Amino acid sequence: TAFSLEMMTFCAQLARATAVSFSNTFLERLHLAGKTLRTFVDSGGNVPRIGDDDEGRVLLTTWHEPDYVLSVLAILAAFFQDGHLMPPRYITDLRTTLAGSLPDAIPMSDGVYHYPDGGYTVVHGRNSQKKPYMLVMDHAPLGYLSIAAHGHADTLSIWLHVDGEPVLVDAGTYLYHAGGQWREYFRGTSAHNTLSIMEENSSTTAGAFNWSTKASCRLHYIDTTSTAWKIAASHNGYVPRFGVEHLRTVRYNSVDQIVIEDTLPGAKDPLAVTLSLHLHPSCVVHTENPADTIIYGARDTPVLRIATEDSVPWKCQQDGWYAGSFGQKQPCSILKKAADMQPGILIKTTITVL
Model confidence over 95-107: pLDDT tens digits? Predict the structure, then answer.
């Protein structure tokens, strides 16, 4: 998205400089796309990694540019002179220097930002201590059009940032053809914060960019009330193999709690499922007792408490991988819950923002 917006913004800048008129419809859509992208930026300027990212650029300023999305938002803000598009921080680079005068940033308002066509919902909120958080839920198609080349098997996955830090994250991309089996790992369901059955992918791959089956997602319910928001969606990726859908509800429970409920409509027999929560490499896991897992963030302070609502505890495994940049990977921790899920039973996960 950022790469496309960079390209279109440079075209719009060139057109303006040469007195060539772009249509109002084009400019309105460009502005709206920038506003949408801005909602995916947390209070610290971090952006969740969703699907493939090979770090394509129109104007290459440096290798592995960590604040690329922020730079693109800044040039959009300069073009439209709209502080709502300005990210909470940015680094002056060639791209922003060429953009001209940058407006003052207007902070993102708390609330629920729902994109039914794109298939994502973004929530900006605060806990009782006024600590900001950002949650993203994926209820989107697998990827773009028929081959969904750059999609991942991440249906119904979530991302959660707390106080401007990424905490629950996507594993990333790593490599394309050169990745071999790593390409399969980073696209697979087990590398995302969702549920897998028998450790199989919700959509099945057929090469580095193709898919033999694609999960289709359906949004059941959305409540955008900022103090009582709720999202419910399901996908059919496991119907051909196991005869069940995966239904996930994510809701705001109280001042500080986010509740995730997973069920398998259509189940007639117990099924072995695994729930995964991938932690950013800067995070450390502490277990106070078998019922509570405490996650410490990059500032060495507690950011999340994950409660066990049943007899199956969350287990921290050190075998995860996180690709923060294309071609680079590093170890990360994964919280996993593996259980035989009985028909008609839900698995409830309560996450407290500390």
Answer: 999 999 999 999 9
